[in-house]
Every structure is written in structure tokens, then in C-alpha cells.
Design a protein that fits this description.
The complex is a heterodimer of chains A (523) and B (284). Chain A has helices spanning 15-27, 41-49, 74-98, 106-112, 125-137, 151-163, 201-213, 236-247, 263-275, 290-294, 303-314, 320-340, 356-369, 402-405, 416-426, 448-462, 482-491, 500-517; strands at 2-8, 31-38, 65-71, 118-121, 141-144, 168-169, 175-178, 181-184, 191-198, 218-223, 253-258, 280-284, 298-300, 348-353, 395-398, 431-439, 467-473, 495-497. By secondary structure, chain A is of the alpha/beta class. A 5-stranded parallel sheet of chain A has the order 10-9-11-12-13, sandwiched between helices. Chain A has a 5-stranded parallel sheet with strand order 15-14-16-17-18, with helices on both faces. Chain A has a 3-stranded antiparallel sheet with strand order 1-3-2. The N and C termini of chain A lie far apart (71 Å). Chain B is built from 9 helices and 9 strands. In chain B, β3 and β4 form a beta hairpin. The chains are: A alpha/beta (523), B alpha+beta (284). Chains A and B meet through α1, β2, α2, α5 and α14 of A and β2, α2 and α8 of B.
């Protein structure tokens, strides 16, 4: 056996990061045992008992971090040391960036990269508008990741951007792909001729992934921020983005994604679309698409359908066969539900989502099979959960909402809250099915399977009959690799459907069939 | 989406009720907390999250804490970089915990229920296994197992009456920047305070003895232990205790999740330490 040790002197890392590093270290090939702990005398004594109190640690102090490795060979030990050093450096680099040590102002950032033509702003919301205006005045396009920018400021910024022919994406814009570069939470998709304008972050991710997974590609994907389609903003950026994509030579097909806009804004969008001489596919999640249809838009009902339509149209194909395929799949899902639902003990569904738009879409799908579901962001206000931390009957929770993310990273990055909630839900004997979304891409957790698989196993110990259903938003080119993630989750017993809609349809059918079998309650 | 959270401007700045005075420099920075130290080695932290308040903390909602470079505290003002805040205009975080009027039996019943039936919510490798052995299986590496055996030895010593020896055994051990054992001891000191109130006895000398036995060379931890010895309650713990003392079950899970989300295992170790002497009636 080979023993190696490393000290990080007087370094400050948060405990969660140290625990993650420790897990990473134990996964490396040839590592028999390891530890990452503070250099207290007492920890050194514990390390001695397992042979890991190495000579190199003798002078380490209580505020130093000790990394001990027991490996099967010298190359494995050296590789692990190198790897852990790199992980620490990455962490330090990340911390340096997060504490803004390198660049203290927009001006300094611009000096570092004078050729920049887009500024991505992710700072405390109260400062974001001021910095965004500075960037616009320097002639830069802007993406504002931050939320908590007032609607008056948003209007002012967008009006300025519009007057100066610049894009102002956001505020609260979670996703965009500009000139092939993913910004915020975004997936690695094929380059192509489909342009997207979206007032929905995960909507953009789901549609762009579907397009890429069906052999088509994206020219530009422009996020506008969810409030752009409200009356107060008037769709300024949605309309400008449509114009940009309409004028863009590389873009041959346009997809519009949003929740239902204010009627006045919808009318403006419809009027604008009439002038575009390219096919336009539109999805208003939960809205009536009739006005778009009249404007010549190809309306889609689900995000998946929008992506499939766009992929087909971009290749000069008809969309009719897609509807047939989806209808056939629905029939198949009913059959699959009757086999998958056999042996389930409970009767309720609990959906735990990291993507807000996916959560909305699921509730819309379920409405047709099992009716309204309880949620922190319900379709019907009567179904708002009074206690966010406790589900009722069929509940679909958006864990990306503000109330869950204060003081912790977004659930696409940090799975701990959702994992705990899963264990909480499966402990309820009335729960039959857990429905999840898994969103891949830049910004998201680097290995969601490593988080979910142990929780699925643990859940099955608590409730052996529990059924996990989900979908994976992303592509095989994403850093996480969709194919690998799907394989790992399926191996753990989760049913992975090709889209969020399909997963929701299956979950809804199973619950519907289970409820049909329940004896009716006499009053 | 909650990627970049900011507190609204309507929120009032809040100062802990036991802030040391002096000129402070930054010591370490984390996502929600920046630690500062003065030339007397006294610690103060600024937090962007009101839930993390403590007797030596400042909650300053209008300030981007990641960029704060200097802090000066006097009895009249708090100066953060170039911003001067009148202390009279700040709210005060009260770190004391008053158990008067608490239905002790019900309180303890709920507390033990949390450690027994909700132990799956506690992070793996936390010291909750001292209250619920089912969690022992989550310790896998050589150090993990050694740490677990050592913690069990410590618990055995405490239960057999060799309390100070038990404290000396667990101190400084475990994971994280504040080793798990030290978090446990801080909770333990506050659990003893509960026992004092519950049984109307004075354990101040005993707390003092435990505190001195637990002291190490890490000043940050010493400061943390001192506050626990002096019955200063950290907001996440105080919040859940107030809920146990009378609020609805529905908010309890929220409080528990908040407490357990502190550090990798810190919140859970701290809470385990608090429950342990209550469960075993230590000090009586």
C-alpha cells in the first residue's frame, strides 16, 4: 500500500465543498482509503488509528486541511494527489471569482476584455440595473441573470436597448445560447438554422435539447426574462428578438416560447409575426394559441411538440406525422401505465421539479388525467399548498422558486434539498409515484446520477413499491452526457421517458388507473 | 428562479446582542457569511441571510457582503467600508432563550421524535447516529469508522458520568471547518442550559468546566464555544426551539431543514449535541 499526504495551509473552504472533494477523492481509481479533515490534534489521533497520520502532517496546525490517501499503487496515489490539488485549485478559483477578487467593477472587466460585445450580469439585484445600463451605454448587449430588478428599471433598460438596437436579455434570464456559446443554464446543442426566442429558461432548454436530439440545430437562442411579455414591459425584447431572428441569415425557422402573454402584447407579437417571412412555431404554455394560428404561426401545445415541429420544418418536412407519432405514443403510455402501476401501494403522485416551466407543463398535462394538483405554483389558486414543506394528495412542487432557494444554490446545481424531500415524500405511505425532472447542461450539477441513484435506493428501502418516473433535459454532448445519466438512472430502477410531457403523461395515467381501482368512499 | 438572491430593501439591518467592538479585517468568506476578526482575536460575521443571525452577527440587507473589505464597530455606529450605520436605527437580534412557560414534556417528546423518526433528513456522517444508531451505516471509510468509534466512546464516557473526559474525547474530531465534535459540544452546552431551566438547577460551573475542556487552538471555534457556554443561541437553533415550544408542526419541518442545511454536517451535529444531554438528563 502507498500512503501520501497533502496539506492545504491556512486555507478556508466551506464544509460542503470539502465533503464533495472527499467524495470525489474516494471515487478515483486505486484509492483504497482517504480523508480530508482539519488538522486538529484529535483528528490526527484518529488518522493515526487508520494509518493515515503521515509524517508530512506533523507540523500542520488546527486551521490547516489534511488530505490523506491510501492507494494500491504509487501511480494511483500520485494521480490522486494531482487530481485533488487540481480540485482545490478549481475550488479556490471558483471562490476567488465568487468573492469578486479579480475584477471589482464593470470598467475593470471591460479593460480586461475590450473586444467584448455582450455583458452577462449576475450580481445582487439592486445593483444589476445600474451595471446593465453602464454596459448598454458602452454599446454592449446585456444578459441579466439576477432577479429582484424592479419592473420600472426593466422597462427603462429595455427601452434604452431597443432605441440603440441592443439586446437586453432578462432580468432573471436563466438561459441563452448566443453564437453557439451557452450562457447561464444552457445545453450543448448542435449548431443549425433554428432561432429561439423564449420568455422561459427551462422552456428554452427543453426545446433546444429536443431540437438537437432530433438532428437539427440552433442558430441563436435568446432569452427575454419572464416579465417581458407582461403589459408593463409590452414585449419590447420579445419583439426585438423576433426581429433579430427574422433578419438573421442563418436562421431559417423561429420558435417562440412563453407563458401566455398579456393580450395586448400577444396581439403585438401576432402582428409582428405576420411580417416575418420564415416559418414560426409558437408555444404559449397553457395559453390559447388561436391568435397565433391566425397570424400564420404553427402552434404547439407542449415544449416537446414545439421542438419536434421546429426540427421537422427546419429540414423541410411536414409536421403531420409528428402528431400521429405523439398520439400513438400516448396510447402506448396508457398500456405502459397499466403494467408499471402493478403492485404499487399508494395512490398519490409527488412531482419534485427543478425547472419552473417543466413544473407548469406537468401540471397542465396532469389536469387532463387527474385534475388540478397541489403546488407552490399551482394552475388553480385553490390548490396552493399552505405548507410548502408538506405535500398534499397529488402535489407538484417547483423547488426552484424563491422560497426554496434562499441561502442555497438552485436545485439544478444542488440536489440536497430535493433528495431530502424525496425521502420525506416516500415516507408517506399514500405516495405511489415520484416524478422528477433532471436538467443537464452548463451550470447544472456535474453528475446528477451520483446524487439521485443513492436516494432512489434509499427510498426503495423505505417504500419498496415506490415508482420513480422522470425525464432528462439535455443532450449527449452536455458535460454530463445525457445517455450516461439515463443509463445510470434506469439501472437504479427509474423509468426515464423521452420528454417531460411523456413522463408526466405516464405518471398521470398510473395515478388515474390507481384511483379508478380505489373503492369509492361513501358519504 | 432563485439563482441570485437579494434581500429586499425594506428589510432592516439587524445587529447581534453581543457584538465586540473594534476594527475588524476579513478572515474568511463564504456564500452567505463573511467572518471578521479584530486585534483582540474576537470574531464577528456579516451575513446576507437573516436566518444565520447570532449574538456576534450582523445582517446588512442593503450591502453586497462579498465585496466588504473593512468593518468597524463602536457602541454608537457600525462602519462597513464607507457606509456608516447608526446602531440606534438597527434592530437587535436577541440570542437569549427563555424556556418559561414551555410544556417541557411535550417539548422533549417532539425533540426526541425529530431525532428518532426524522433522522433520514439529517446529512450522512453527522453525529445524529449517537441518538439514532440506524445512521451508523453511512460511515464507510477508515477515518469515518474511526471517527464513529471515537464518538461512541465519547458518548459512553458521558453516559457513565465521565462527562469532561467524554468531551475531551470528541472535541476537535470529525469533518468540516468546525470539526463535528466541536459543533456537538456547542450544542451540548446549550442542551445543559435547557436542563438547568427544566430542572431548576445551576450547571454554570459544569458548563464552564466543559467549555475549558473543549478549548483548542482554533480561535474561531473557541469563540463559537464561548457563546454557547454563555447561553447565546444561534438563530437557526433558536427558531426551531421556539417552534417546538408552541408553533405548528407545519413550520417545524421548515425550521429543521434550515438548521440541517448549515455546513456539511454542522447544523446536524450542533442539534444532535443539543438533544443528547436532554435525552440523557446529563448534569442532574
Amino acid at each position: 500500500m502507498i500512503f501520501k499526504g497533502l496539506i492545504k495551509k491556512g486555507s478556508y473552504y466551506d464544509s460542503v465543498s470539502l465533503m464533495i472533494l472527499s467524495k470525489e477523492l474516494n471515487k478515483l481509481d486505486g484509492i483504497v482509503d482517504s480523508s480530508i479533515v482539519m488538522g486538529t490534534a484529535e483528528n490526527k489521533a484518529l488518522l493515526s488509528a487508520v494509518g493515515l497520520n503521515l509524517e508530512v502532517f506533523h507540523d500542520a496546525g488546527e486551521t490547516d486541511i489534511l488530505i490523506g490517501i491510501k492507494a494500491s499503487s504509487l501511480p494511483a496515489a500520485e494521480n490522486a494527489l494531482q487530481k485533488i490539488d487540481q480540485l482545490f485549485n478549481d475550488l479556490q478559483h471558483h471562490q476567488d471569482q465568487s468573492t469578486d477578487k479579480n475584477v471589482h467593477s464593470f470598467g475593470a472587466a471591460l479593460k480586461q476584455l475590450p473586444e467584448a460585445n455582450l455583458s452577462l450580469i449576475s450580481i445582487a439585484g439592486k445593483y444589476a440595473a445600474g451595471e446593465a445600463m453602464k454596459a448598454l451605454k458602452q454599446g454592449l448587449h446585456v444578459m441579466i441573470f439576477s432577479d429582484n430588478v424592479s419592473i420600472a428599471e426593466e422597462y427603462e433598460l429595455k427601452q434604452y436597448a431597443h432605441d440603440h438596437e441592443l439586446l437586453l436579455m432578462g432580468p432573471d434570464c436563466g438561459s441563452a445560447i448566443i453564437n453557439g456559446i451557452p450562457l447561464g443554464f444552457a445545453n450543448v446543442v448542435q449548431k443549425g438554422n433554428i432561432g429561439i426566442v423564449a420568455a422561459s429558461g427551462t422552456g428554452l432548454q427543453e426545446v433546444s435539447s429536443v431540437i438537437s436530439n432530433h438532428g437539427a440545430g440552433i442558430s441563436q437562442a435568446i432569452g427575454t426574462g419572464g416579465r417581458d411579455i407582461r403589459k408593463e414591459i409590452g414585449g419590447i425584447m420579445f419583439l426585438d428578438a423576433l426581429k433579430v431572428l427574422g433578419d438573421d441569415e442563418e436562421t431559417k425557422v423561429i420558435v417562440m416560447i412563453s407563458k401566455p402573454p398579456h393580450p395586448d402584447v400577444l396581439q403585438k407579437i401576432a402582428d409582428h409575426v405576420k411580417k416575418i417571412k420564415k416559418p414560426v412555431i409558437g408555444i404559449l404554455i397553457g395559453g390559447n394559441p388561436e391568435i397565433l394560428r391566425q397570424a400564420g404561426v404553427i402552434p404547439a401545445i407542449t415544449l416537446e411538440q414545439a421542438g419536434l415541429y421546429a426540427a421537422a420544418v427546419s429540414k423541410g418536412k411536414e409536421t403531420g406525422s409528428i402528431d400521429n407519432d405523439l398520439a400513438q405514443r400516448k396510447t402506448g403510455i396508457v398500456a405502459l401505465a397499466s403494467t408499471s402501476g402493478k403492485g404499487l401501494q399508494g395512490k398519490f403522485l409527488r412531482g419534485l421539479f427543478s425547472g419552473g416551466t417543466l413544473c407548469d407543463e406537468t401540471q397542465l398535462v396532469l389536469k387532463d388525467t387527474i385534475g388540478y394538483t397541489y403546488s407552490n405554483s399551482p394552475l388553480n389558486v385553490d390548490f396552493r399548498l399552505t405548507d410548502l414543506w408538506k405535500s398534499r394528495e397529488n402535489s407538484i412542487i417547483d423547488l426552484g422558486e424563491d422560497e426554496f432557494t434562499q441561502g442555497r444554490p438552485h436545485p439544478m446545481i444542488d440536489y440536497s434539498l430535493r433528495n431530502k424531500r424525496i425521502l420525506q415524500e416516500v415516507s408517506d405511505t399514500d405516495v405511489a409515484v415520484i416524478l422528477l425532472d433532471v436538467v443537464l447542461g452548463y451550470g447544472s450539477h456535474p453528475d446528477p446520477a451520483s446524487e439521485l441513484v443513492p436516494v432512489i435506493h434509499e427510498s426503495k428501502k423505505i417504500s419498496p413499491a415506490i415508482l420513480f418516473i422522470g425525464s432528462v433535459t439535455g443532450t449527449d454532448q452536455d458535460p454530463q452526457n445525457k445517455k450516461n445519466i439515463v443509463r445510470e438512472l434506469e439501472k437504479a430502477g427509474m423509468i426515464i421517458m423521452p420528454s417531460n410531457v411523456a413522463a408526466s403523461e405516464l405518471a398521470g395515467q398510473i395515478i388515474h388507473q390507481l384511483s379508478s381501482k380505489q373503492p369509492s368512499r361513501s358519504i | 428562479m432563485g439563482w441570485m438572491k437579494t434581500q429586499t430593501l425594506k428589510q432592516q439591518p439587524i445587529a447581534g446582542d453581543d457584538l465586540p467592538a473594534g476594527t475588524f479585517v476579513p478572515l474568511s468568506r463564504y456564500k452567505n457569511i463573511v467572518n471578521f476578526v479584530n486585534d483582540q482575536n474576537q470574531f464577528v460575521y456579516i451575513t446576507s441571510n437573516q436566518d444565520f443571525l447570532a449574538s456576534n452577527a450582523l445582517f446588512l440587507p442593503a450591502i453586497n457582503i462579498a465585496a466588504v473589505a473593512s468593518l468597524a464597530i463602536s457602541s454608537e455606529t457600525i462602519v462597513v467600508d464607507q457606509i456608516c450605520i447608526d446602531r440606534n436605527k438597527m434592530a437587535i437580534y436577541d440570542s437569549t432563550m427563555n424556556y418559561d412557560g414551555v410544556d417541557f414534556e411535550d417539548f422533549e417528546l417532539q425533540l426526541l421524535h425529530l431525532s428518532a423518526d426524522e433522522s433520514h433528513l439529517f446529512p450522512e456522517k453527522s453525529l445524529i447516529f449517537l441518538l439514532n444508531p440506524a445512521n451508523e451505516k453511512l460511515f464507510s471509510s477508515g477515518f469515518d469508522r474511526q471517527f464513529m468509534l471515537n464518538a461512541k466512546k465519547s458518548a459512553g464516557l458521558i453516559l457513565s458520568g465521565s462527562i469532561v473526559k467524554g468531551i475531551e474525547t470528541i472535541k476537535g474530531t470529525g469533518y468540516g471547518l468546525t470539526p463535528s465534535g466541536d459543533d456537538f459540544i456547542a450544542g451540548f452546552l446549550l442542551g445543559l442550559h435547557y436542563n438547568e431551566c427544566r430542572y431548576n438547577i445551576d450547571l454554570s460551573g459544569f458548563r464552564e468546566e466543559i467549555y475549558h475542556a473543549a478549548l483548542g487552538k482554533n480561535l474561531l471555534i473557541s469563540s463559537f464555544l464561548l457563546r454557547a457556554k454563555n447561553k447565546k443561541y444561534f438563530n437557526p437553533l433558536k427558531k426551531i426551539l421556539l417552534l417546538l415550544a408552541g408553533a405548528s408542526q407545519s413550520s417545524l419541518s421548515e425550521g429543521l431543514q434550515q438548521l440541517l442545511s448549515i455546513g456539511a454536517t454542522s447544523g446536524a451535529d450542533f442539534f444532535s449535541g443539543y438533544i443528547f444531554p436532554i435525552k440523557h438528563k446529563t448534569g442532574l
